[in-house]
Write a structure and sequence with these properties.
three-stranded antiparallel beta sheet; 37% strand; Alpha-Beta Plaits; alpha+beta; four-stranded antiparallel beta sheet; 2 helices; elongated; 9 strands
Length: 115
């Protein structure tokens, strides 16, 4: 059976299959991770450097005190699913500047309502 390549079609002698253009796009599944028990001296760059060992950090958010600008002890990172799972396996419980990190998938807080 001979096939003729085409961006949106698979063509053979027997049939023509038309595929949606999104078929060829890579589907990325971003996961948001919660990182807890961070030292107050932690910066967003420190957090990104720590997690970049496991993949591409798509976004980061270090929660800081409004007045002092210091880390409040937790933050969030977004990574692709398989990279996020590797980061959890590699960093949860690991010592980071004297603190034992808590790393897991973000879960919505129960009982919180929007304003």
């Amino acid at each position: 059976m001979n096939t003729i390549p085409h961006p949106n079609r698979v063509v053979s002698e027997d049939c023509i299959l038309i595929l949606p253009s999104s078929f060829h796009q890579r589907v990325t599944e971003l996961k948001k991770l919660f990182i807890g028990n961070l030292p107050t001296s932690t910066t967003e760059k420190d957090l990104e450097d720590l997690f970049s060992e496991f993949g591409t950090v798509r976004s980061s958010n270090l929660v800081t005190d409004v007045f002092s600008g210091q880390c409040k002890g937790f933050g969030f990172i977004e990574m692709e699913g398989h990279e996020a799972r590797a980061a959890i396996a590699g960093l949860d419980g690991k010592d980071f500047n004297g603190n034992s990190l808590r790393v897991n998938f973000e879960s919505p807080k129960a009982g919180r309502r929007g304003r």
